[in-house]
Specification:
With 288 residues, this protein is mainly α. It has eleven helices and two strands; from the N terminus they run ααααββααααααα. A two-stranded antiparallel sheet has the order 1-2. α1 (2-32) crosses α6 (163-173) and α6 (163-173) packs across α8 (185-207). The longest helix has 31 residues, at 2-32.
Length: 288
Amino acid sequence: MIVFLQSLMSGVLIGGVYALIGIGLTIIFGVMRVINFAHGDILMIGMYLTYFLFSVFGIDPFLSVAICIPVMFAFGALTQKFFINRMLGALPQNQILLTIGLGLIMSNTIMLLFTSDYKILTTSYSSGSVDLAGISVSQPLAISFFITAAITAALYWFLMKTDIGQAIRATAQDREAAQLMGINVRWTSILAFGIGSALAGTAGALISPTYYIFPQVGSAFTLKAFVITVLGGMGSIVGATLGGIIIGVTESMSAVYISSGWKEVVVYVLFLLVLLFKPSGLMGTSRM
């Protein structure tokens, strides 16, 4: 029973960070209808930014979130304005090729700057744990989860209660109708891509104390972000949150009860089953 609760707890904690990755992709797709294959590479840049701040200035990885959010927002907004925005009316395959190309540029630029060697961000609490009713809880994962929960709650309030947030939701629901209502959809698209990039970069900062950092790490997280987004329902923030936690718990349980080498296989089998029996995802067709 302790082993079950242990793996469940670990799955929920890492699933919260996965959810943050999925929410970022969901916002980008919901507003712009662009499939962003560079999403994982943006996360990778967030990891390297955190590593740079820690190794050069000694800034704690979790404190660096306060720097990563505005920096990655600006990076995403500029990327959308100068590259993605020019392809919004193009064929979907052209948009896909563009985002793949941007991802390759990001990963290869990082490789030139930092080499392809694996980086390890070691802090005093990297291997620390807290005992909770007999269950050992990873300290960095617990901190990451609480930061993720706070960011998700703030984002939900922003989207539901502010005029800008409602403009983003309106654009996601019907881009043409939002434009007819006077919403500047181009500016909204830049804002949405900036928010999505900030969330991905923040997720990179949060997982940097527990993951190896290398230029190609983004490809695995891009695939995981798509699984989470489709599993929860394309365009649904609540669905992305639920999908992230489900993926985290599935990975953790599979690693304990089957094998760590099979956890990815189990995740994708679950993903295929959901697509077979509920193609619209767990949360249906709802958007934000």
